[in-house]
Amino acid sequence: MYRRRMSTIDSSSPSVSSPSIFTPTKPTALRDQSIDDSGSLGSSKSDSSYKDGNSNNKDRDSKLQNTRHRLVYEYQKLQELSIKGLYVIPSFTSIFEWHCVLFIRNRVYRSSVIRFVIIIPDDFPEECPVVKFQTPVFHPLIGMDGEFDLTHHFHDWKPEKYMIGHILCYIKNVFHNPDKYNYPALNPEAEKLLKENYEEYLRKVSHFVKLSIQNVYNNPQHTPIVFAEEWKDKEKFEATKRQILKKDSPTIVDSFKAFFTRK
């Protein structure tokens, strides 16, 4: 059903442990550097300012490297957590963008195949990531444009308290219990139907569930998680799976570490 360009996270879903081994960091993007009239990064006019610039660059690089290590750690813990029905892999070009697919196996949204992206800010882990849904979903807390507000549930976001795994568990719970969280609706129609006309709410949800299945092979541009129709062939699927699961094959975490912690 899918090409193995993804990380499989699929078992039970216990609570997520909080990290305690990282010092909070605030990596600053290179865009914060000055730019001169020619469009180049600003150059120093004195030895002292040059030294200060070098020091600042080293500081930025150090903070960015700390953030990368933090994200590698969180991704590895996510592998250990094994959230049922969830596939997650970072973008091939940026550790700050994680692509996810959630297969919902029961309750109202059963059979949905839902894609979303976690966008991690430069100030992570001090600042909470942002979630953007790529699959249209009929849900009170998800806008029809894919908007999803984390600020209510994680209003007290702290790096020593929360990890990205908490966000993923919350997203899964939102689909299993759509009426559990009394937060401002981003889809007022869905909220109204859920409260006042449940039968029509179910009909609308069912329509979007079917759409998610029909469009499962319409892979978003640049996604590392690609579903291909040829994997409907069971023999091809099993042969590829055996190749993937060879004992001497490097794990996704090994590849992840090597790529994103390189200098």
From TrEMBL:
**Residue ranges with Low complexity bias:** 11-20, 36-56
Report the InterPro entries cross-referenced here.
Ub_conjugating_enzyme, UBC, UBQ-conjugating_enzyme/RWD
Span list, region Disordered: 1-63
Instruction: List the transmembrane segments.
Output: none
Q: Which Pfam families match?
A: UQ_con
UBC core domain location is: 66-214
The record's annotation in SUPFAM superfamilies points to: UBC-like (SSF54495)
Give the protein name, as stated in the record.
UBC core domain-containing protein
Q: Which species expresses this protein natively?
A: Cavenderia fasciculata (Slime mold)
